[in-house]
Specification:
Number of strands: 16
Keywords: Aminotransferase, DNA-binding, Pyridoxal phosphate, Transcription, Transcription regulation, Transferase
Strand order of the largest sheet: 4-12-11-10-9-5-6
Family: In the C-terminal section; belongs to the class-I pyridoxal-phosphate-dependent aminotransferase family.
CATH topology of the largest domain: Aspartate Aminotransferase, domain 2
Protein name: PLP-dependent aminotransferase family protein
Oligomer: single chain
InterPro entries: Aminotransferase_I/II_large (IPR004839), HTH_trans_reg/aminotransferase (IPR051446), PyrdxlP-dep_Trfase (IPR015424), PyrdxlP-dep_Trfase_major (IPR015421), Tscrpt_reg_HTH_GntR (IPR000524), WH-like_DNA-bd_sf (IPR036388), WH_DNA-bd_sf (IPR036390)
Distance between the termini: 64 Å
CATH architecture of the largest domain: 3-Layer(aba) Sandwich
CATH class of the largest domain: Alpha Beta
GO molecular function: transaminase activity
Largest sheet: 7 strands, mixed
CATH superfamily of the largest domain: Type I PLP-dependent aspartate aminotransferase-like (Major domain)
């Protein structure tokens, strides 16, 4: 007698597609997210499933254990194993506002952390990990930075790397070094709020420059440099925050040429380069003496790694940059920097990076499925930029979403001057569970279909 067909949610197990128990657990998770498996539905007994999949019983046992760890299944003794009901969420709000890397599926972050710290503590002088350092990073830290940045530039000498306690600190130090109070910093009309905040604190003016669908316009940049006697430009050219625009190579070359002609300096804040699909080389590759390149680990590995690598090629400017940095952030925390270095040098960072990249693309697939036709963002990175229908204003939609237990960021939060557009940014990594992300996006999709006058009734 022919065996009955496998349950529709199970994959055809493939060699080279990762451990078989994880393939089964992943299929379970996807089936729950897609609604193919409902809460309370009974799963096949482990021995039966192992026989039908032609795998060892231990493989299925490990798969079910992994699914329980992900809160997908629950055992009911002799009655068998069932799909678990969703956990009650005590937090009243689903936060889709924080641009953080998603937890990578199939990567044991806790194990990476334990192993990395164990190696750091075994190889390093523990007293040195708990004392003051001069800043800029140790020789090993700079070597790790050069290795991390190699995919963007190729070979970079470690002496040209400065290790900083996060990208925001690096941006602030560069503003101090490269501008004077009252100077204009040229930016895109919609961009990273942290730049605007730092400029305001230091008494600098943020001046928007015209853009098109490829980013900042070279001719507009040149005109603004001359009009405002501006010496500093801030750009986030890869998966720009918040618009997700990635500048093509031609535009990057043109902007680099303008910086050279106008003797301007570019802060190239590039946290998402490693998340992008085949991005062009950095602008700094075309204007190495006029650009300062920042690559942070917080946006592509985990926010707790407050480490950024800054390429500063000129030794005199590097000394000035370090002096400015030390005025408010003496050093990157030695233990954090040592962990980042350990992960980069032993390959753990690459493993985690690939996991984050894969998970981000799965989440973009969920967003495309739920918000079909509502956005044109690429299928990578940590966020999407959703243009709103004319009957919604972005601040109004954000408030309505808040009333429904969702937090999104309106376009106004990213405005650097002039029109900011009518859109919201949705972060895809801040919700740990895919099913909760899908549910939140579905609620948002329904909200977008309703007109604001549906919310005019009094709320008590």
């Amino acid at each position: 007698m022919q065996d009955p067909p496998l349950p529709s949610w199970l994959p055809q197990l493939q060699a080279g597609a990762g451990p078989r128990f994880l393939q089964i657990a992943d299929a379970l998770q996807q089936a729950v997210a897609d609604g193919l498996l409902k809460p309370g539905e009974r799963l096949p007994p482990q021995r039966e499933l192992a026989a039908r999949l032609k795998v060892d019983l231990t493989t299925v046992t490990r798969a079910y254990d992994e699914a329980r760890r992900r809160n997908l299944l629950e055992g009911r003794g002799a009655r068998g194993t069932y799909v678990a009901a969703p956990k009650a969420e005590l937090a009243p709000v689903l936060d889709l506002s924080m641009n953080t890397p998603p937890p990578p599926d199939g990567v044991d972050f806790g194990d990476l952390l334990k192993q990395g710290l164990a190696q750091v503590l075994m190889r390093a002088d523990n007293e040195l990990l708990m004392t003051y350092h001069l800043g800029g990073g140790s020789a090993s830290d700079r070597e790790a930075g050069a290795r991390w940045i190699a995919p963007m530039f190729g070979s970079v000498h470690p002496d040209q790397i400065v290790v900083c306690p996060g990208a925001q600190a690096a941006i602030a130090a560069l503003i101090l070094v490269l501008t004077e109070p009252g100077d204009a910093i040229l930016v895109e009309p919609t961009g990273y709020p942290g730049l605007r905040a730092a400029a305001s604190q230091f008494g600098r003016r943020v001046t928007p420059v015209g853009t098109d669908r490829h980013g900042m316009l070279p001719q507009a940049l040149e005109a603004a440099c001359r009009q405002h006697d501006a010496r500093l430009v801030y750009l986030n050219p890869t998966l720009q925050n918040p618009t997700t625009v990635t500048m093509p190579e031609k535009r990057r070359r043109e902007l680099a040429a303008v910086a050279k002609r106008c003797n301007a300096r570019i802060i190239e804040d590039d946290p998402y380069w490693l998340l992008a699909e085949s991005p062009p080389p950095p602008i700094a590759a075309y204007a190495p003496e006029h650009a300062y390149y920042i690559a942070t680990l917080s946006k592509c590995l985990t926010p707790g790694l407050r480490v950024a690598f800054v390429v500063v090629r000129d030794p005199v400017e590097r000394a000035r940059f370090l002096a400015a940095l030390r005025s408010f952030a003496l050093m990157a925390a030695p233990l954090t920097a040592a962990l980042a270095t350990q992960w980069i040098l032993d390959g753990s960072a690459s493993t985690l990076m690939q996991g984050v990249r894969d998970e981000a693309r799965v989440r973009h697939g969920i967003a495309r499925d739920v918000l079909a036709g509502r956005y044109a963002s690429p299928g990578d990175g940590l966020h999407i930029w959703v243009e709103l229908p004319a009957y919604w204003r972005s601040y109004q939609l954000a408030q309505a979403a808040q009333n429904e237990g969702l937090v999104v960021v309106p376009a106004e939060a990213f405005a650097t001057g002039g029109e900011s557009g009518n859109a919201i940014r949705i972060s895809l990594g801040s919700v740990k569970d895919r099913a909760r992300l899908r549910a939140g996006l579905q609620r948002l999709s329904r909200l977008l279909e309703r007109r604001p006058d549906a919310f005019d009734a009094a709320v008590v």
